[in-house]
Design a protein that fits this description.
It is built from 15 helices and 2 strands. It is mainly alpha-helical and 302 residues long. Helix 9 crosses helix 11 and helix 13 packs antiparallel against helix 14. The protein has 3 domains: 74 residues, no CATH class; 82 residues, no CATH class; 107 residues, Cyclin A, domain 1, CATH 1.10.472. This is DUF3196 domain-containing protein.
Length: 302
């Protein structure tokens, strides 16, 4: 992708939102080379969102610093034996050996930084650095600092990657949630099967009825799982029977149509997902929780 200005490519607000989700997905799956190429493309386009451009440039600078080889290769396919996570781990071990205070600087940045993107970058590095005080500091950060649900979830994932175990209690969505670190899914495809079935159902319906929605559904669902993980609503979702797959899928589908595409037909979706009168109450509960999430993620939308 070119680094020169691309005057005929304009990114509109909803397109910017989509690419923000896409970048999050690339980082979560450790596809750093693709993230570098995507960021270079975005920075070459026109957009009126200066804050997004600053975040993209900051993220690109960090990725180019951490992965100079990937930066040169841009979007070329890696060799079969190349493991970007392993490359990051080796690089961070070297930096920690060269600078004994490196871990403490990362922790200081984590506690003091207000940017969620920069907090996530610090957490990604802390997952691979060997230092005796990191786990305790991360647990303190998680339990004593007011954090958005996505940062809470990323911190739990970092602790899981570091081999930490045991329960932590944190305030989440207005309730005290007790979570066992070892039960935290490191990747979103490690959630229980019934959770996977919900997003599969949305993809199945949206691909035929609302094709554009399919691009947003998976990333929005991943953010929702981070939002709800460990809460009473999450535990209730796991206990519900198979019919509730359609209940949650329908609630997500309508929420996306309302928040991203400015409108949706509830009755039409009820028919598509087979939401009967017997399931209406459960759907209302799922939809209410989805609306709480949507207000946090799409605060500018009514």
């Amino acid at each position: 992708m070119t680094e020169q200005p691309t005057d005929n490519v304009i990114l509109f607000p909803k397109t910017v939102e989509y690419y923000q989700f896409e970048l999050t997905r690339l980082l979560e799956t450790e596809r750093y080379g693709e993230a570098i190429g995507t960021l270079r493309f975005l920075l070459a386009c026109q957009t009126g969102d200066n804050r997004a451009r600053e975040e993209w440039q900051s993220l690109l600078d960090w990725l180019q610093l951490m992965f100079p080889d990937l930066s040169m290769a841009e979007l070329e396919e890696p060799e079969e034996d190349t493991d970007e996570a392993e490359l990051l781990k080796r690089h961070l071990h070297m930096k920690a050996e060269q600078s004994p205070d490196y871990a403490n600087k990362l922790l200081e940045s984590l506690f003091q930084q207000k940017s969620a993107d920069k907090q996530m970058l610090a957490l990604d590095q802390l997952a691979f650095i060997e230092h005796p005080g990191i786990n305790d500091a991360l647990i303190r950060f998680l339990t004593e600092t007011p954090l958005p649900p996505f940062i809470q979830f990323r911190t739990l994932q970092t602790l899981k990657k570091r081999g930490a175990e045991g329960p932590v209690t944190l305030t989440k969505n207005g309730e005290a949630a007790r979570i066992d670190i070892e039960e935290t899914p490191v990747d979103f495809d490690q959630f229980p099967s019934q959770i996977q079935e919900i997003i599969s159902r949305v993809r199945e319906i949206s691909e035929t009825q609302h094709p554009a929605l399919a691009y947003f559904a998976e990333e929005t669902w991943n953010e929702f799982l981070a939002f709800i993980f460990g809460t009473s609503s999450y535990r209730q979702m796991l206990r519900q029977d198979a019919a509730c797959v359609d209940v949650w899928a329908c609630a997500l589908h309508l929420t996306l149509l309302e928040r991203v595409f400015d409108g949706g037909d509830k009755e039409e979706l009820f028919e598509l997902y087979g939401i009967t009168s017997e399931l209406a109450f459960q759907w209302e509960q799922a939809y209410r929780i989805m609306q709480q999430f949507a207000q946090a993620v799409f605060p500018g939308k009514a």
